[in-house]
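Sequence in, structure out. Go.
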Amino acid sequence: MDYDSFLELAKTRRSVRRFKPDPIPDEYVDKIIEAARWAPSGYNTQPWDFVVVKDKKIKDSITQWVGKYWAAAIEMEETREFGQKQGDFPWHDEDMDFRIAPVYIILYGDTRTKIGLPMFIRHYPNLRESIYNSSLANAFMYMLLAAQTLGLAAQWVSLIAEPYIHCMVKDLLNIPRELEPYDMLVLGYPALKPRPKLLRPSDKMVHHDYCSQEEFRTDEEVNDFARRTVTWTTATHRRGVDKKMVG
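Output:
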């Protein structure tokens, strides 16, 4: 792959939260996980395990637990500094939220793998956890990129690691005590086309050598972008399905 092809992949990789119910080939799931297996990890510890969920009863249980959490999350939005509330975040069309997607992949991290790190890292809590989490993030990003090459929609459901959901899913799926959820990837065929991405200009984020304070954003600029991206993200999450894509 040349650089231009890779950049196009990076630009078109987007989170899509509207899915068709159509099944996806098992081969696609295998390819996505195979790509993730090659992700870089700290000291090659490869701290990951992948749990593929297709059973409707299990998926329904997971979405029910996530839904319970959102009741509190919506109340929390009332406290947002900018006065921009998410409302019924994130689903606009209840018949097409992530529960309709055919496959979930839960990425688990095996905490025992930290023993493979050098002693100076194992006994430096911040660095130890940073390397462990970065390794899992690498595997998750590889899955996202692989899904994009296969024409699939993919959504992050990070709430899988929220304590209540974490405990309920671990008990349901008989996950060993030493494994912790990192994130869940929801996969399916897209039921909408993503909007253009709101992106910061490169000259506002790239700096060279001896930097001056004036090169970096002010508090006002950071807050302004935060307001804009909250609005953009909320509007994106609330979009209904594209009826032309689902028939």
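Check: DSSP finds eight helices and four strands in the chain. The mean pLDDT is 91.
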